[in-house]
Amino acid sequence: MKLFEAILDANHRAVAGDLKAGLHPAEFTDALPVVALTCIDPRLNAFFPNALALPAEDFIWLRNAGNIITGTLSSTMRSLALACAVKGGREIAVIGHSDCQICKTTTMSLLEKLKAIGVERSRLPENVNEFFGMFGSERQNIIKACDFIRSSPLIGPAIPVHGLLLDLETGKLDWVVNGYASLPSPSQPTLAKIEFAALGPSGTFKNFDLGEMKFPEVKIGDQPASAKTWQSDSSEKIGTQAQKAMPRLTPAPDPTATIAGQVVEFAEKNWPKPPIRVQPSPLPPMKKKSPLPPPTRPRANLRRP
Questions:
Q1: Alpha-carbon distance 182 to 164, whole Å?
Q2: What is the pLDDT of residues 128-169, one digit of tens each?
Q3: What share of the chain is helix, strand, coil (3-state, %, to 5)?
Q4: Quick one: which H or E segment has residue 173?
Q5: Which domains are present in the chain?
Q6: Angle at CA 239, nearest 5°, toward 238 and 242?
Q7: Which distant-in-sequence residues (6+ apart) come within 8 Å of 213 by Cβ?
Q8: pLDDT digits over 4-15, tens only?
Q9: CA–CA separation, 110 and 304 (whole Å)
Q10: Strand 205-207 relative to strand 197-199: parallel, antiparallel, unpaired?
Q11: Nearest to residue 152, comparing CAs of 88, 100, 102, 83?
Q12: Are 98 and 72 in contact (CB under 8 A)?
């Protein structure tokens, strides 16, 4: 049984009237201390850390109005990250409660209450609802906060993030978000376990040795004399190595070309050669005769008798 499984089991037994219900923190030293984010409601002072059956030294208590988280890099997320990194928190729990006054406050009523204490609307951010993280359901607010924590780059992936809802009348805890269900599976491959592979003959894979790769011998901070020169030298070396590695292939003879050559050779040897015809020289052009004058007609006798 894991830590919060044992915590909820002890809590439910205690609410049911079991006077011997409790927790043995010594059995869960690997999961302690717990980082808990709750509301600032003073009514919660009597419940924590007693509702979790944890000693005070194993309970890191963070509080804000409505146990609200507005983003993956918000100030509350900064406190959660420091609680895990500096104070050694192993598991995180967002604990909301019933009858939350923040949940019952609308944006318009909030503006009126702020104005009553001297805060004008012009001094507030444009999106008041987003800035203050107003919500209408305690459960949805817990789920949203757990999603922000789980997706935050400030929280390690191996830290469980739980969501609980406390009933102020009975002290009973309900499990809204099970943080153990979202942890990565031990059998899930990680980048450190994935081996590099390269294609081998016939489409198979073989191990790829990083030692086979050749890198230019340039110290960190030094700049090569010429990038083009280094690139051309590398290209020449790669081309030379490729030419040596590739086998020299002799092209196969073309059967069509061979048969055609044999036919031409046979024809030249056996077929009679056609006679050579002499082209007669062209005749010189004939001279054009000059045109003859037109025939003359006798003149008529115009004299009168």
A1: 15
A2: 988 999 999 999 999 999 999 999 999 999 999 999 999 999
A3: 40, 10, 50
A4: strand 173-177
A5: 3-182 (3.40.1050.10)
A6: 85
A7: none
A8: 999 999 999 999
A9: 148
A10: antiparallel
A11: 83
A12: no
For residue 164, the SS3 value is: strand
DSSP assignment of 217-251: ---TT---S-HHHHHHHHHHHHHHHHHHHSPPPPP
Given this model, what pLDDT does residue 184 score? 79
pLDDT attached to residue 198: 38
Q: Measure the CA angle with vertex 65, ends 61 and 69; round to 5°.
A: 80
CA atoms within 13 Å, Cβ hemisphere of 125: 8
Do residues 33 and 90 lie in contact, with contact meaning Cβ atoms separated by under 8 Å? yes
Compute the CA torsion angle 68, 72, 74, 78 (nearest 10 deg): 100
Q: Which two tokens stand for residue 283?
A: 């005749």
Contacts of 58 (CB under 8 A, 6+ apart): 25, 32, 33, 34, 49
**Dihedral sign, CA of 280, 284, 285, 287?**
negative
Low-confidence stretches of the chain (pLDDT beneath 50) = 189-213, 215, 220, 224-227, 230
Q: For tokens 């340039």, name the residue.
A: 218
pTM: 0.61
- CA torsion sign for 108, 109, 111, 116 is positive
What's the confidence (pLDDT) of residue 183? 86
Q: Assess whether the previous peptide bond of 55 is cis (omega < 30° from 0).
A: no
pLDDT of residue 247: 56
Report how far apart, in Å, the C-alpha atoms of 141 and of each of 65, 136, 195, 265, 289 are.
12, 8, 42, 96, 123
Through-space distance between the first and last CA atoms of the chain, rounded to whole angstroms: 168
